[in-house]
Amino acid sequence: MPHLIAVSGALGRMGRRIADIATNAGHTIVAPIDMKHAGESFAALVSDVRQKASVVTAYTGGAEVMIDFSLPAAFESRVRECLKHKTAFVSGTTGLLAAHFDLLDKAAQEIPVLWAANMSTGVNLLLGLVKQCAAILSDDFDIEIVEMHHRRKVDAPSGTALALLHAICAGNGSNAGEVVRHGRAGHTGERTRKEIGMHALRGGDVVGDHRVMFATEGESIELVHRATSRDTFAAGAVRAAEWIAHKPPGRYSMAQVLGL
């Protein structure tokens, strides 16, 4: 069923792909949101004559669901606008703080909301697998997380890497804040049994690589996800928007969307 969609961060790399994929699926972009091009033709800016709306700097209603891939600074405004206009909210914005998630929980009392660090099918499957491994493997296995993204990414570690950390901790009952070790340098001493190493690499145009390693004496297990196109994330976001558009108020997850 076609939907009316608002896109926050519409002129970013993800926003452009979301608009294209959503339009290909028969949906209509009614509110492309960007801070720098207010009033300009979205069609002209993205070279897509199918787009009929003009760019706006704030959401004033008219959509069934908003897809937000912007920045933390804009996140609160978008959530409050969706609350005001009773619009479902889907977000993949990373680098959020505890206060942002508190706001999301409050919004979920009145509208359907979904936030995910990563909206690809493969990554959400990976989250389930690492949780299962962490639950099954003994404390003899050391755990390391390595992620790599393009040089323009502004937050580290990635939201997906943090989601992997929390999935591991949910599996083995540890506390993420107590066990995470961000990189190593100098004379660090022996690795402790409880710590989980977190390493962020940046360079080139890498869309997103994530690797989780479980290593012990004599053997190791590696779980890897490699994204080669942003379309996998954009398609996941559109799928989430289609799924959540007319759900009752509540906090939803990509696992629910994907039936995992």
Please describe what this structure looks like:
The chain is α/β, with parallel strands linked by helices and 260 residues long. The chain has 2 domains: 4-115 and 230-258, Rossmann fold; 121-227, Dihydrodipicolinate Reductase, domain 2, CATH 3.30.360. The protein is 36% helix and 24% strand. It has helices spanning 13-24, 42-46, 72-85, 98-107, 121-136, 159-172, 176-179, 231-244, 254-258; strands spanning 4-8, 28-33, 65-68, 88-91, 112-115, 142-149, 180-182, 196-202, 208-216, 219-227, 250-252. It has a 6-stranded parallel β-sheet, sandwiched between helices. The protein has a 5-stranded mixed β-sheet with strand order 7-8-6-9-10. Helix 1 links the parallel strand 1 (4-8) and strand 2 (28-33). Helix 3 (72-85) packs parallel to helix 4 and helix 5 runs parallel beside helix 6. The chain is elongated, with a radius of gyration of 19 Å. The mean pLDDT is 95.
